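Appendix B. Chain record.
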Amino acid sequence: MTDKQSSAPRCTALVGPYLSGKTTLMESMLFISGAIGRRGSIGEGNTVGDASPEARAREMSTELNVAHAEYLGESWTFLDCPGSIELSQDAYNAVMVADAAVLVCEPSTDKALTIAPFLKFLDDRKIPTILFLNKMDHPEASAQAAIEAIKDYTQRPLVLREVPIREGEAVTGFVELAGERAFKWRGDQASERIDTPDSVKGRVEEARQNMLESLADFDDVLLEKLLEDETPPIEEVYGYTTKVFREGGSIPVLFGSSVNGNGVRRLLKALRHETPGPTEAAQRLGFEASGGDTVAQVFKTTQAGQTGKLSLARVVSGEIADGMTLNGERVGGLFRMLGNKQEKIAKAGPGDVAGLARMEGVKTGDTLSPSGEVETEWPAPLKPFYSMAVHAEKQADEVKLPGALAKLAEEDPSFSFVSVKDTSQLVIWGQGDQHLQ
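Structure tokens predicted for this chain:
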């Protein structure tokens, strides 16, 4: 990949089970990148993500959160996905348009099974994935034990990229294996470079050799060097880690604590150096090179208050401008997102994620173009298997209920409803009781 492509706007989806800390991780990423001036918390109800009343009341992500940031001069969009398995439609749709995924998990053997559905979806599509073991500030946290428990649920090898440094029972830093450098955490600030403690030198040597051997499974040149007991230069090692990650060959493992910023800067730098550009994501979606023609993929639909209907789309090629016509619909406003805040913009180019306002005939999964003739293969919505009969609280509102449910079905393709004539009931269908509630 060229440097120019690497600096194109990129998009990362944060996925993982409920309570793994994805929204807190995004908050730390936004704070470190300077997108926000103060890091909020779930408890205080002031995070960029989970800003809806429903999410605040439940203290969990109930819909996709989208946030734009600039990090070291490069443009990024972070997609914080709901963790509940009943709300996974948003996560799957977001991952489809992302350049890479960060799979967030607690470092506990008991939680390994909860990430299995996400791993399968990512594996099946060979989406570049980083496993981020969150909450490593807990005394009982063990990166190695978590990896051993999780590895049975993925087709790709998990490759530890760093070794924790402990002081007593607490993890206070890490040794980065590719560069053989040790650091002490300092929260949201840049980590402090330190000498590698004698207590971890043996573990570091073993882990680095395991990392190189795993990478060699995907590169014959590296394999030949290892067979000849030749140690590759550090810059070459970085090249191998980047190449294998972009090809979706293995899953690198990083760790930290999002609640206080530990390890988050390291994660951002890994994403910046190794995440492929939007061309690879477009190819994965099945788009052919279309030169300068405007093409965008809609991955989420929302009803955004005064703005009305908002279609969240990633630009594949060309440029979208406010007022242009796509799929026979006029773009009635173009926005960059930071949670529930919308910044009006004049145009969006390849790799950008933008909200397109008032495109009433557009739905999630649609491919947008001036001709309306560009198509791609979009995954079918999850099949509903749980139902519930509903009615309006006030009889006068019964006539409005189908229209309101239709808007919900636009926002979430895994939700549907039907009118049952035999019982005169309106029945909603979804992924479970929590989803329907």
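Further analysis of this model is presented in Appendix C.
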